[in-house]
Amino acid sequence: MGKRELLKHIEDQTELKQFPKFSAGDTVTVKYKIKEGNKERIQNFQGVVLQQKGSGSTATFTVRKISGNVGVERIFPIASPFIEEIAVNKRGVVRRARIFYLRGLRGKKARIKEKRV
Prior knowledge:
mainly beta; 1 helix; five-stranded antiparallel beta sheet; globular; SH3 type barrels
């Protein structure tokens, strides 16, 4: 049994939390546990999903938000024990899987059309 097969076997054994399906262009709120000293609190990080990467327990997703006129991006691992909940606020209409072009846009140009249900 090689390294890849062993990793795949271990990955299959681990139980992942179930989160709603989301993709690039969706606006999500990630409730993330933060430890400060001996206290623990939950912080909401709301922004647009730029990309999803990987599969299984090694998958990650990138969320971008504007905070005080500065763009802030954060990469979250799907299997992180610190993610409490992921809520999908809006479904966006985009034509590609990685929307890095959003980094160069400001204001009204940075809006994403909402998907009609």
